[in-house]
Amino acid sequence: MPPRSEDELDPVTLHNQALVHIDSNPNESFSKLQFLLTQNPFPPETFCNLLLLYCKYDYYELAADVLAENAHLTYKHLSQSMFDYLDALITQLTSPNDAYNKFDLISSEQIVQLRKAQKRIENTAENTVERHKAVDTYESVIEEYVPALMAQAKIVWDQGDYPKVERILQRGLEFIEHNPTWKLNVAHTIFMQEKFKEANAFYAPLVSGHLDDLLGLSAIVIANLCVAYIMASENEDAEDLMRRVEVEEENADPSKKTLHICIINLVIGTLYCSKGNFEFGITRIIKAMDPLDRKLSPDTWFYCKRCLMAMIENLAKHMSVIRDNVLMECISFLEQCEAYGKEVNTRMDGPLQDASAAGATSTNAKNTVTYEARLIRALLLQILGY
Predict the structure, then answer these.
(1) Largest Cα–Cα distance of the chain, in whole Å?
(2) CA distance 69 to 14
(3) What is the mean pLDDT of the segment spanning 46-63?
């Protein structure tokens, strides 16, 4: 049968399709959810899911517009706690401080609810209806508490105040110390403060639980653990973990683009560059991008060019001395980037980018890796006196 158009699908199927394909095709998923809001009836979860997804992709203005245009749906389809959470998220657009205070109020109220639920659990006998209700209440509040606490911490994270982020996350220790999201964000926060041994203690259990499927784990988690190992002089553990990832990538479906080992090497290379060891760092980054035709992307190029520009700046200020063979390797690498980067855009547009605007961006030669690689190569040659 030919594929049916949106207006031929039942609302529940259309809603579920939108959620299933949000990661692979967010533009189409948003269109489906927006279309559903114009139908009567539509699945009651549609309104809330659309707002949450707008906020997930930082489209706070659109979320605010949907709330304002559909006030009648707000009272009908949003609980008070969900409305407060969305309101705090949207407030970040105009006033991060006000949003922080709103999240503070939300999490404080949730802590009170959690303590009450804990007391009810303690004061009821096991395997009773009252006990099950108390446990259900506790778990439902936890599901609301974790996103609110993480959103509050993210506001401070974006400001670069990592010690304060750690203090915010520590508030959840009493209730969510075994929650994987909490553990992961604590690990990232400690890592950014260069407390590598402590970060190791958080990252290692997360990775050890996925040793049979490392490619199913976020690459940055593995990369940060490798860096933590290296900074703690546990290089053998880092090498062993990287070998495991390499083996998995070799055995993976060749039609799927896997960048785990590439990202790990980029992170390690960036670490060495940040410590002033540009020779080893840049060499590691060039190695990470091999083969270039499979590894070059807007994200990987962003981290490559940061380190290359830092190296050029240090050379211009006579703060670093780098061997000629490494510099020649950089020039050769940039020439290859020019060759393979004609169709690789250096700007990442959001999922709701207008198609015509996206087309205009892609045809702008200055927004390609080829242009930027040629510019960086020219700067390097100028520094070297060519």
Answers:
(1) 82
(2) 22
(3) 93
Distances (CA, A) of 138 to 110, 115, 124, 181: 10, 9, 14, 18
Three-state SS at 330: helix
CB 270 within 8 A of CB 307: yes
State how far the Cα of 289 lies from the Cα of 278, in Å rounded to an integer.
16
* Polymer length of the chain: 386
Calculate the alpha carbon distances from 183 to 40, 167, 177, 201 in Å.
Answer: 42, 14, 7, 10
Residue at token pair 């962003």: 302
Strand partners, 368: 345
Q: What is the pLDDT of residues 289-305, one digit of tens each?
A: 989 988 999 989 999 99
How far is Cα 68 from Cα 208, in angstroms, rounded to an integer?
A: 46
Measured distance CA(108)–CA(310) in Å, rounded: 44
- The answer for residues whose C-beta is within 8 angstroms of residue 181's C-beta and 6 or more apart is 146, 150
pLDDT category, 256, cuts 50, 70, 90? Answer: confident
pLDDT of residue 348: 67
- For residue 345, the cross-strand partners are 368
Q: How far is CA 160 from CA 100, 105, 272, in A?
A: 15, 22, 21
Treating both helix axes as pointing N-terminal to C-terminal, what angle do 129-158 and 96-122 enclose, rounded to 10 degrees?
Answer: 160
What is the distance in angstroms between the CA of the first residue and the CA of the last residue of the chain? 64
**Domain that includes residue 297, residue range:** 286-345+367-385
| 35-52 core/surface letters (b: 16 or more CB in 10 A; e: else) | bbeeeeebbeebbbbbbb
Structural domain contains residue 336:
yes
Q: Single out the residue in 50, 78, 106 at which a domain terminates.
A: 78
Number of domains within the chain:
3
Closest C-alpha among 152, 212, 214, 141 to residue 179: 141
Q: Which is nearest to 149 in space by CA: 171, 117, 129, 133?
A: 171
Residues 107 and 222: their CA atoms lie apart, in Å, by: 31
User: Do 63 and 17 share a structural domain?
Assistant: yes
Q: Is residue 249 situated within a structural domain? A: no
